[in-house]
Amino acid sequence: MIFRAKASKALDKAEDPRETLDYSYQKQLEMLQKVRRGVADVATSRKRVELQATQLEQQSDKLQKQAQQALSAGREDLAREALTRRSGLQQQISDLQVQHAQLQGEEEKLTLASQRLQAKVESFRTRKETIKATYTAAEAQTKINEAFSGISEEMGDVGMAIQRAEDKTATMQARAGAIDELIASGALEDASGQPNDDISRELEQLSAGQDVESELAAMKAQLGSGSTPQAIEGGDGDEPAVEGEKKAQQEGQS
Amino acid sequence: MIVRILGEGQFDVDDSHLDALNELDSAVESAVDSKDEAAFRPALQGLLDAVRDWGSALPDDTLVDSDLILPPADAQVDEVVALLGDEGLIPDAL
User: Fold this and answer.
1) pLDDT in tens, A75-122
2) CB contact under 8 A, A157 and B60
3) Helix A151-185 crosses helix A76-133 at what angle (to 10 degrees)?
4) Which residues are B2's β-sheet partners?
């Protein structure tokens, strides 16, 4: 209906009809290469999206941790800001998950298309060899026309599938490129798009302060070893919160 | 009859189903005519499901031309317009 073997047209051009079979077979092998490259390209895009999602999730976890630290230091404003930024990231992450599912779908489709085409090309090769072995001029036209049935249609279908996959992938790659740039610039840490702003710095300082406090607490607990394990729990709890608050106040004054 | 769903493969569907397929096809056709994307999606889905249910998938190494060619499941209305003849996707008689 849409794709019909243009065998007769192709035959007109060839001096020996058998050359048409070889020529078509070459085209089929090229198409097979193309669809395999298509599978590889889509897989590359899928892996890129996976990597980006991982990076954003790490960033999101970090903000979650910073929000907790800010809250335990009595800085609810900072905690709120961190959580707001985190929710922006979550949105990006779920967008990436949708893209990932689409790419996975395209990858599966093209993989199946590649398998179908490979089986058909193999069938065509067998037919071609049979025709060439038993070739007589009288029967050439009919036999060769028969040989083309099905394969041109499959080639058309696979060609379309590759085109569709390429179109979809191209759109996503443009978006992926934009996200990569945002990750590289650090702008994703800030919903307003300004990297390393005051809020980010304050959150970083708070984290660093907290980390130092908890390490100190752990060391103190170790020095006083043999003593009760509660010391560690106590160190992680109320005490650093007060320390953190003091620190924040000192920084505010300076 | 041999039916190809683009991007999916070929199915052998008994000719006795032609009328039923035509009925499903007319739903697709009218959705396409009115460019009604909301009606188009389930209509195409219904047609393709019928082909999958009633037909049996041809082995991958089969080389045979299709009597009918249907759009891929994720096709847009505009793409189908390009494929459609006056008789819809399924001709009234083979």
Assistant:
1) 888 899 889 889 988 988 999 999 999 999 999 999 999 999 999 999
2) no
3) 160
4) B12
Q: Chain A contacts of B68, Cβ < 8 Å?
A: 1
The residue type found at B59 is P
Model ipTM?
0.77
Q: What is the DSSP string of chain A?
A: --S---HHHHHHH-SSHHHHHHHHHHHHHHHHHHHHHHHHHHHHHHHHHHHHHHHHHHHHHHHHHHHHHHHHTT-HHHHHHHHHHHHHHHHHHHHHHHHHHHHHHHHHHHHHHHHHHHHHHHHHHHHHHHHHHT--HHHHHHHHHHHHTTHHHHHHHHHHHHHHHHHHHHHHHHHHHHHHHHHHHTGGGSTTS-TT-HHHHHHHHHHHHHHHHHHHHHHHHHHTTTS-THHHHHHHTHHHHHHHHHHHHHHHH-
List CB contacts of B69: < 8 A, sequence separation 6 or more.
A1, A2, A3, A153, B3, B4, B6, B83
Question: pLDDT > 90: what percent of chain A?
Answer: 30
Cβ distance of B61 and A1 shorter than 8 Å: no
Across B34-67, b (16+ Cβ under 10 Å) vs e yields eeeeebbbebbeebbebbbebbeebebebbbbbb
Question: Across the interface, do B62 and A1 touch by the CB < 8 Å criterion?
Answer: no
Instruction: Give the dihedral of Cα atoms A113, B65, A157, A25; nearest 10 deg.
Output: 70
Between positions 20 and 49 of B, the ones with CB within 8 A of A are: none
B53-76 pLDDT tens trace: 999 999 999 999 999 889 999 898
